[in-house]
C-alpha cells in the first residue's frame, strides 16, 4: 500500500465527515452568547481544581483570570517584564534572588493588600509534598529558604544556581500564582480552594463540574493595576468534540474556541477569524521507562532502551506527511520538544525506512517487536490520536507491531508521574518554556516527575548549563544539549505546531504569543 493511501486512512476525509454530521445534529441548546459575556469553549477543564498547586498547568486557561505572577513576558520582545514584582536582582552565582513587590495591589473580596507574606506562603505551599503542580518537584529540591525582610521584599535562596528564575519558574508561563495567606488562614484551606481569591481582575462566580466555570469581574476592577477587561463575565464550557465547538462558533454560542487544523477552512468559510499563536506546542511520542537515573522509572528490558531502536523509530516516520495531512501545513518538522533559537541548528531525523530497518536488525530486532501507544485528546492536541494512527502505520512498515490504546490525560499523567508507564509509549505535547533551564529540568532530569528521558551524561550536561553564569557559554551548552537529545533519540519528535483558535465577530483585538496564550482577560470587544 502506498504511503499517501495510508495517510488517507486517518486524515481529513474521516474528520470532515464526522464534523459535518455533528454540526448538523449536535448543536447545544445553550443560549447565544450575551453581549457582555465572553464564552470560551474548551475541550477539557483538566482537574477542575482552583488553586495553583492542585493540578496541571492546563488549568491556567481559567485560573489566570484569578491569579497573577511575579513576572510576565512581553509578547513583542520576549523580554521579562514586571508583574507583582516591580523589580528583582540575582546574586552572581544565581543562588540568591531578591524580589521587590509592587505596592497597592489588592486581593479580591476585600482581603487586603498583597505583601511579601503572601508571596512566601504561595511559594512554600506550592512546593509542599502534596503539591500536584508539574514544577513543584523541581522547586522543592531547588529552594533552600524563603525570607521576608519587610512587607515589600522577598528573598529566595536556592540550593543550586538558577540564572533564569524570574522569567522561568516564578513567571507567568509557569504555575506559581500568588494567593492570599490571610484568606487561607481565615477560612481554612478547603474553603479557600472552593472560592479562590487572587489579585487578578476576575473571581469565581460558580462551577458546574465537567460542564461550566463562570468568572465575573471584581467590584473594584476599575482600580486594577494591570488589566482593563472589556467583558464582565467569562464563561468556560467543556465541549470535548471539536466539531461541536466549531458549530458553536458558527451559531454564536461561543466566542473563542481552540480548533483543530482541519477546521480552519470551515471557520473561515463561515466568515469568522482565526487567531493563531506560532509554534506553541510540539506533538511528540514519548518512550516509557527511560529515566535511567531513577530506578523506579527505568526499564532496561524495553526494546527502546537501546538507542538504535529509538533512532529507528524516528527514521521510520515521515513527519512532513503528517504535518501536511494533520496540521494543514501549519507546523515545521521538529528536532526537539520546544522552539528555541539555540536548537535551530539541530537537524531533524529524515524519513528513511531502510535505515530504520537496518538499525532494528543491528539492535537485535530484525523482525520488529510489539509496542503499545497510548493516546489522548487535549487542547492543543486534538490531532494526537490521529497522529498515533499515523505513527503506527509507519512503524508497522518496518515490522513493529503497534496496539493503540485511547486513554484520558489525567490517568496517563498519574501513571507517568508515579512510575507506572515504563512498558509503553504515548503521544504527548511539548511546550515552549520562558526559561531554557526549566524545560530541561522538567523533561530530562530525574528530579522532575515529568521526566521522560534521563542519563548520567545528560544530567551532567544540564548541571553544567545551569551553573554557567556567562550568557554566551550558556547558549553554546544549550545547543550541545539539543544535539545530544536528538542523537540519543530521546523521543520521536514530530513537529513544532501552531495553536489556532476560532473567534466570533464579537471579539476584537486579542494578541496571543508563543510564550503566553492564557490572556483571556485581554480579549477586546469588536468595535471598541
UniProtKB/TrEMBL annotation:
Keyword Transport: yes
Regions annotated as coiled coil: none
Lineage, opening ranks: Bacteria, Pseudomonadati, Pseudomonadota, Alphaproteobacteria, Rhodobacterales
Keywords, in A-Z order: Signal, Transport
Gene3D superfamilies listed in its UniProt record: Dipeptide-binding Protein, Domain 3 (3.10.105.10), Periplasmic binding protein-like II (3.40.190.10)
Domain Solute-binding protein family: 80-422
Protein name: ABC transporter substrate-binding protein
Domain of life the protein comes from: Bacteria
Amino acid at each position: 500500500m502506498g504511503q499517501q493511501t495510508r495517510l488517507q486512512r486517518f486524515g481529513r476525509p474521516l474528520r470532515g465527515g464526522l464534523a459535518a454530521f455533528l454540526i448538523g445534529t449536535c448543536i447545544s441548546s445553550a443560549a447565544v452568547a450575551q453581549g457582555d459575556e465572553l464564552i470560551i469553549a474548551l475541550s477539557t477543564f483538566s482537574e477542575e481544581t482552583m488553586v495553583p498547586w492542585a493540578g496541571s498547568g492546563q488549568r491556567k486557561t481559567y485560573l489566570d483570570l484569578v491569579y497573577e505572577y511575579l513576572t510576565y513576558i512581553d509578547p513583542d520582545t520576549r523580554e521579562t517584564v514586571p508583574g507583582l514584582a516591580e523589580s528583582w536582582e540575582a546574586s552572581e552565582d544565581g543562588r540568591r534572588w531578591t524580589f521587590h513587590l509592587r505596592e497597592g495591589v489588592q486581593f479580591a473580596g476585600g482581603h487586603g493588600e498583597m505583601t511579601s507574606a503572601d508571596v512566601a506562603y504561595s511559594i512554600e505551599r506550592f512546593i509542599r509534598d502534596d503539591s500536584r503542580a508539574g514544577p513543584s518537584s523541581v522547586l522543592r529540591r531547588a529552594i533552600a529558604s524563603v525570607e521576608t525582610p519587610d512587607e515589600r521584599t522577598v528573598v529566595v535562596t536556592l540550593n543550586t544556581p538558577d540564572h533564569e528564575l524570574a522569567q522561568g519558574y516564578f513567571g507567568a508561563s509557569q504555575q506559581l500564582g500568588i494567593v492570599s495567606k490571610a484568606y487561607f488562614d481565615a477560612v481554612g484551606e478547603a474553603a479557600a480552594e472552593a472560592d479562590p481569591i487572587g489579585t487578578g481582575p476576575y473571581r469565581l462566580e460558580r462551577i458546574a463540574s465537567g460542564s461550566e466555570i463562570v468568572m465575573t469581574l471584581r467590584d473594584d476592577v476599575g482600580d486594577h493595576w494591570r488589566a482593563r477587561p472589556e467583558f464582565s463575565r467569562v464563561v468556560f464550557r467543556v465541549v470535548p468534540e471539536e466539531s461541536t465547538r466549531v458549530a458553536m462558533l458558527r451559531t454564536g454560542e461561543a466566542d473563542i474556541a481552540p480548533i483543530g487544523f482541519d477546521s480552519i477552512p470551515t471557520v473561515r468559510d463561515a466568515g469568522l477569524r482565526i487567531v493563531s499563536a506560532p509554534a506553541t506546542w510540539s506533538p511528540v511520542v514519548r518512550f516509557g521507562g527511560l529515566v535511567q537515573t531513577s530506578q523506579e522509572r527505568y526499564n532496561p528490558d524495553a526494546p527502546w532502551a537501546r538507542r538504535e531502536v529509538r533512532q529507528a523509530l524516528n527514521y521510520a516516520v515521515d513527519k512532513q506527511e503528517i504535518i501536511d495531512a494533520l496540521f494543514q501545513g501549519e507546523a515545521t518538522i521538529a528536532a526537539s520538544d520546544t522552539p528555541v533559537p539555540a536548537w535551530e541548528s539541530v537537524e531533524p531525523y529524515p524519513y528513511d525506512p531502510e535505515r530504520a530497518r537496518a538499525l532494528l536488525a543491528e539492535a537485535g530486532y530484525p523482525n520488529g517487536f510489539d509496542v503499545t501507544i497510548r493516546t489522548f485528546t487535549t487542547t492543543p492536541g486534538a490531532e494526537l490520536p490521529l497522529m498515533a494512527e499515523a505513527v503506527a502505520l509507519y512503524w508497522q512498515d518496518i515490522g513493529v507491531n503497534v496496539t493503540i490504546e485511547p486513554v484520558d490525560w489525567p490517568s496517563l499523567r498519574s501513571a507517568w508521574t508515579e512510575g507506572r508507564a515504563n512498558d509503553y509509549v504515548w503521544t504527548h505535547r511539548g511546550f515552549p518554556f520562558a526559561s531554557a533551564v526549566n524545560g530541561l529540568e522538567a523533561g530530562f532530569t530525574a528530579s522532575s516527575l515529568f521526566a521522560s528521558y534521563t542519563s548520567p551524561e545528560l544530567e551532567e550536561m544540564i548541571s553544567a548549563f545551569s551553573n554557567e553564569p556567562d550568557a554566551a557559554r550558556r547558549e553554546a551548552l544549550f545547543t550541545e544539549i539539543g544535539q545530544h537529545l536528538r542523537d540519543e533519540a530521546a523521543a520521536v519528535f514530530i513537529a513544532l505546531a501552531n495553536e489556532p483558535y476560532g473567534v466570533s465577530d464579537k471579539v476584537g483585538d486579542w494578541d496571543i504569543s508563543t510564550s503566553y496564550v492564557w490572556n483571556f482577560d485581554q480579549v477586546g470587544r469588536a468595535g471598541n
